[in-house]
């Protein structure tokens, strides 16, 4: 049976709504992404050798401007640090090849609801190339050697002109789905995720729906990038991954969203603060793929050569100064969780109930602090792709 026009409009409106409202927690508060992304910084820096290997594969051509893009940049200082690493590495490569380094342009891209204001307040001033040597610019941490701009929009579709980008970088973003699969929230569907807000421990049919949505999203992402990338360019992609062949075992993401977070939702139901229907109509739009999931999509899309594709152990998403302090561990987990999905929770149940929810997450996490420190480990899929 073909979907009705009303159903199509409902699906479209839900997709648009998620894209317009979703973002990491903005600002500079305790639960903001800017103040809860230290672990991502550590994980990204531990992969710098892999990033530089990918950069070494980018073709050196005489171009007036070398264009770098961070897709899913969010609003913290991590993206600025990584763009600086990329630009400085490429300047040295141009010089080593005997080619005069071109000007550099960096585009920071995320959904329109992203807190670009906070991001650009962190941006160093542009170096004065007319009054400084390139060596002085490279040695200066207080200035940047590239022009900067923001590009709002979903990376699941086109964002840039054809053949205009030399290097795409995306870290800790591609595990986010463009939408929660409709079947997961449809009571008539076998994939209906009743009693849960994530796919950790869910039915196989629920996990299959998530997997199909993620693979479709990645295919759209790659198809868009092949139009935008110059020949000889490369991509360095990092997203949450899993080591289990079972997609209902989401590893670190499962522990973050499928235990204390899930239990906190159940607390609200048991206390009569929300209905079971309200809980079941909320699902975290995250899917941690396996290597095979990722490889299948890249090979099927066919535009990019795989230089490297591996699972990288990232470690804990929590950074605590006193691991023996259970309260600090509980607070860190609640803030980490809230920084990445708090906007969605606020929109679904309101800020007051959202505060109650994350207070319960913190209490539950505090009571299980030792277990969290021992078991909460993230694995990442790291992909180096070339466009030839």
From TrEMBL:
Keywords: Magnesium, Metal-binding, Methyltransferase, Transferase. It holds the Pfam family Methyltransf_7. InterPro entries: MeTrfase_7 (IPR005299), MeTrfase_capping (IPR042086), SAM-dependent_MTases_sf (IPR029063). GO terms for biological process: methylation. SUPFAM superfamilies: S-adenosyl-L-methionine-dependent methyltransferases (SSF53335). GO terms for molecular function: metal ion binding; methyltransferase activity. It comes from the Eukaryota. Belongs to the methyltransferase superfamily. Type-7 methyltransferase family. PANTHER family: S-ADENOSYL-L-METHIONINE:CARBOXYL METHYLTRANSFERASE FAMILY PROTEIN (PTHR31009). This is Indole-3-acetate O-methyltransferase 1. The lineage of its organism: Eukaryota, Viridiplantae, Streptophyta, Embryophyta, Tracheophyta.
